[in-house]
Amino acid sequence: MRIVVDAMGGDHAPEVVIQGLQAYLAQGTANVILVGQEDKVKPLLGKYPLPPERVQFRHASQVIEMDEHPAEAVKAKEDSSMVVGMNLLKSGEADAFMSAGNSGGVLAAALFRLGRIPGIKRPALSTVFPTQKGFTFILDIGANTDCKPLYLQQFGIMGSIYAERVLGVPNPRVGIVSNGEEPGKGSMLVQEAFELLKGSNLNFIGNVEGKDIPAGMADVVVTDGFTGNVIIKLAEGAAALMLGIIGEEIRRRKVAALGALLAKPAFRAVKHRLDYAEYGGAPLLGVDGVVIIAHGRSNAKAICNAIRVAERAVNGKIVEQIKSGVAEHLGAGGEA
Q1: What does the alpha-carbon distance between residue 143 and residue 122 come to, in Å, rounded to a whole number?
Q2: Does residue 168 surpass a pLDDT of 50?
Q3: Best exposed site among 78, 95, 283, 289 by fewest CB in 10 Å?
């Protein structure tokens, strides 16, 4: 297996990317094609040595920056690390692509170079989300701010396949985000998508409210990219708020501080479960190749885990599984 790693992607690239890659190679089994600017990457390889038999380096002279317009940058920068890496995946020289760079740029490069899986109308950005019962899988979290009912039905199909084949969830429960549990609640988009999902052979459980997501009521949660992005960002902020308030209140009380010492392993476990870095990257489902997008602020742990996500997706044959699942659920044209 060969995974392309975008050395120039992320707020702290390329050093953090190489640190994460070094950690991955100590435990993962795939080989890696590291793509980036030679003058910035090569000096770091002396500081963070990588096994030459498992790592190839490909020079790319350009970088798609975080503040650039995604589609325009992809078209203008043919020799960017993102485009060069995606071309390696397209040509069959690699089995997966991972970047912590401009997420819109990764989406545009994937669409321009790889295209969509036949029958899929829109790709979806997805993520694992911690819950009281373990985790749920949410999509879309930002690729499509405006959606049609068919898109949401297809997100449910792709999410169910990923949850079962890659995450190991048998017969995943699929729910759709709404402002009420009862059928008939929600926007016209939600109501129409509800009927499509209900008519599919997915294990569709109906509407889920915001409170139901962290409770683990569904294994797969479907929504439009606008709502999904708000859910994820709000959850990140709420987790940081709660951990901050707990720490602040403990420091105000001497007795509580003593108790906190005893409870330190529990606090560490909570932080571990809520840490985005533990979940690595977000699979971009629906494009014709394994593409993983990591958080822009990823640290070395997040980069390492994002590469592991790519490895699991390749092992789970997720692209092939989605292709066969679309044909099974929707027919060759992608329509219900």
Answers
A1: 8
A2: yes
A3: 78
Phi and psi dihedrals of 233, rounded to 5? -65, -40
Q: What is the largest CA-CA distance in the chain?
A: 66
- Provide the CATH topology of domain 1-116+286-316: Isopropylmalate Dehydrogenase (3.40.718)
Residue 281 CB contacts under 8 Å (≥ 6 apart), including other chains: 98, 100, 292, 293, 294, 295, 302, 305, 306, 309, 310
Among left, alpha and beta (phi > 0; psi -120 to 50; other), residue 27 is alpha
Give the phi and the psi of residue 311 in degrees, each rounded to 5: -60, -45
Residue 272: is it exposed, middle or buried by C-beta count within 10 angstroms (0-12/13-18/19+)?
exposed
Domain 121-277 in the same topology as domain 1-116+286-316: yes
Residue 335 has pLDDT above 60, yes or no: no
Higher pLDDT pick, 276 / 25: 25
CA–CA distance from 300 to each of 10, 17, 101, 295, 297 (Å)?
A: 11, 6, 14, 11, 10
- Amino acid 199 reads G
260-317 pLDDT, tens per residue? Answer: 676 667 666 666 566 566 667 889 999 999 999 998 888 999 999 999 999 999 998 9
The ranges assigned to domains in the chain are: 1-116+286-316, 121-277
State the average pLDDT over residues 118-135: 90
| 8 A C-beta contact, residue 322 and residue 117 | yes
CATH superfamily of 121-277: Isopropylmalate Dehydrogenase (3.40.718.10)
Contact 213, 176 (CB under 8 A): no
| Residue that wins the pLDDT comparison between 165 and 219 | 219
- Between 281 and 213, name the one with better pLDDT: 213
- Please state, for a pLDDT cut of 90, what percent of the chain lies above it: 64
Q: How far is CA 254 from CA 71, 250, 265, in A?
A: 55, 8, 19
